[in-house]
Design a protein that fits this description.
By secondary structure, the protein is mostly helical. It has eleven helices and no strands. The chain has two domains: 5-75, no CATH class; 127-265, de novo design (two linked rop proteins) (Up-down Bundle), CATH 1.20.1440. It starts with 9 loop residues before the first helix and ends in a 25-residue tail after the last helix. Residues 1-5, 19-35, 68-73 and 280-290 have low confidence and may be disordered.
């Protein structure tokens, strides 16, 4: 219900009087702004009046809302309003409800913590698989380096032996073919097969040297033998390290939970570096003597 104008305070009526120019001496004495409006002229008076109108409008709204708020506070709450206020009361009205709110907050915090732990675990698993893959790549790089080193020693070794046993052309040709095959191999299995063939050819080449005492006493041949022996040892060590890394890597990507992320990362089982089964290089491995 809108209150009657008689219910507004004296200051309200004084401001209304100031707008109409009815500024009695008693009013201007108690309300100086009324005198300011009466004394103002032209645009200044218009500006002052607009400002007071806006102020009065705000005061009327505040004054009007007070009885309404008081009336609603005294009025009994209806059933529909109880339903609309149920959520508000659940959260804020009683100590029990505040405890419920604390429990809700605790559940939310717990979910966030679990999500954070799960995210860290997810990232850790993927990073772990990537690290194992890089270890395998590094181990293979070591093998490839030693294979290349041995391949570079072979031409000098063959040239030295040719000076004493030029008629062993079949052995020299076999070594050259195996060396070319090793250089053109693109997969680990192809490299393993070519390496086995080259190892067998070197074994036959060193066996030839046993029949030539002068060749065995040649300083260049002795030096090449020493370098070849050191390279063969490094190849064996690198092969073992690589195969060990491949074993661990293959187990990780096949077992849970690594199997969940291997496909996503594009990781597949890796081949071991070992000579083909039944290859004669396993039997006829080169024996380097000093």
């Amino acid at each position: 219900m809108i209150p009657h104008l008689s219910n507004f305070p004296a200051s309200f009526h004084a401001e209304i009087a100031s707008f109409s120019g009815e500024t009695a001496p008693g009013i201007t004495a108690h309300f100086p702004f009324a005198k300011d409006i009466a004394d103002a002229k032209g645009p200044q008076k218009k500006k002052t009046v607009f400002f007071r109108i806006r102020l009065l409008f705000f005061k009327m709204i505040v004054f009007y809302m007070k009885p309404i708020r008081f009336e609603r506070a005294q009025r009994p709450v209806q059933t529909d309003e109880k339903k609309s206020l149920r959520f508000h009361n659940l959260l804020f009205d009683s100590g029990k409800d505040r405890n419920n709110m604390k429990q809700v907050i605790g559940v939310i915090v717990g979910i966030l913590v679990l999500a954070l732990i799960g995210g860290c675990w997810y990232i850790g698993q993927k990073n772990s698989l990537i690290a194992f893959d890089e270890e395998v790549n590094k181990a293979w790089s070591d093998i490839d380096t030693q294979l290349q080193r041995r391949s570079d020693l072979i031409p000098n070794l063959v040239s030295t032996v040719k000076g004493y046993a030029a008629h062993e052309e079949g052995v020299f040709t076999g070594i050259a073919d195996a060396r070319s095959k090793l250089a053109g191999a693109s997969t680990i299995s192809e490299k393993a097969e070519a390496d086995a063939a080259l190892t067998a050819g070197l074994g036959r080449l060193l066996a030839i040297a046993e029949n030539y005492p002068e060749l065995k006493a040649n300083e260049n041949f002795i030096r090449l033998q020493d370098e070849l022996a050191g390279t063969e040892n490094r190849i064996a060590v690198s092969r073992k390290r690589y195969n060990d890394q491949v074993k661990i890597y293959n187990m990780r990507i096949r077992q849970f939970p690594g199997s969940m992320f291997a496909g996503e990362l594009g990781l597949a089982p890796r081949d071991y570096f070992e000579p083909p089964k039944g290859h004669d290089a396993v039997v006829n491995a080169p024996k380097v003597e000093f």
